[in-house]
Amino acid sequence: MAYPMRMRANVEGDAVVVRVLMTHPEETGLLKDKEGKIIPAHFIQTVTCKNNDKTVLTCDWGTAISKNPFLEFRFKGGKSGDKVTVSWIDNKGDTATADTTVS
């Protein structure tokens, strides 16, 4: 299943600001469908963000994250033209990766 991400990264002052919109169902495993069956848990567990292959942020997420999560973070040491990559893995082993160039 394809889980696209939309992202951008801009230099603002002395930091790079990265904004990422991820597409993911983020099911908690606590809700039931129309037939009363529990919808299995399906959520992002780990998010890794890199600047030119150097990790700048790692997140461990759980079931409390909303559907189609938005992540915004800042880091220092980046510059215009750098490559920023965001990837995640969920509890079912699905993954997604996206990258952008800092502007």
Describe this structure in words.
The chain has 103 residues and is an all-beta fold. It has one domain (5-30, 38-101): Immunoglobulins (Immunoglobulin-like). It has strands at residues 5-12, 15-22, 44-51, 54-60, 70-76, 83-90, 95-101. The strands form two sheets. A four-stranded antiparallel β-sheet has the order 4-3-6-7, with no helix packed on it. The two termini are 30 Å apart.
* Total count of domains: 1
How much beta, percentage-wise? Answer: over 45%
What average pLDDT do the residues reach?
96
- Uncertain regions spanning at least 5 consecutive residues: none
* Element-level helix/strand string: EEEEEEE
Primary descriptors:
Immunoglobulin-like, 103 residues, mainly beta, 4-stranded antiparallel sheet, 3-stranded antiparallel sheet
SSE blueprint:
Blueprint: E1 5-12, E2 15-22, E3 44-51, E4 54-60, E5 70-76, E6 83-90, E7 95-101
